[in-house]
Amino acid sequence: MKKQKVVYRFFPYQGVELHAKKEIPFELKLSSRLLLDEICFNWNKERLEKEINSSIDAGNKEAFIGLSEKYRHYIWE
To answer: Which of these, 51, 45, 44, lies nearest to 67 by C-alpha position?
Structure first.
């Protein structure tokens, strides 16, 4: 059996150059996602605490019960 020969021919590209973007490392993506999740978690928890305190000050029992049900998800440890 004869060996097959491969011949490559180079034709220069005449179009516009394309520049590839550098990929962000996985560790950086993960750490930034975790940090953003923690910031959002803390902000939502503080907002609920303020709303619960204002409902206690106003004496609104229904609002307090509804907000405390939502707040339980933040302290379920």
So the answer is: 51
Cα Rg of the chain (Å, integer): 30
pTM of the model: 0.62
37, two tokens: 């999740």
At 4-57, the pLDDT tens digits run: 787 888 878 888 887 878 888 999 999 999 999 999 999 999 999 999 999 999
Which 3-state string (H, E, C) describes the chain?
CCCCCCCCCCCCCCCCCCCCCCCCCHHHHHHHHHHHHHHHHHHHHHHHHHHHHHHHHHCCHHHHHHHHHHHHHHCCC
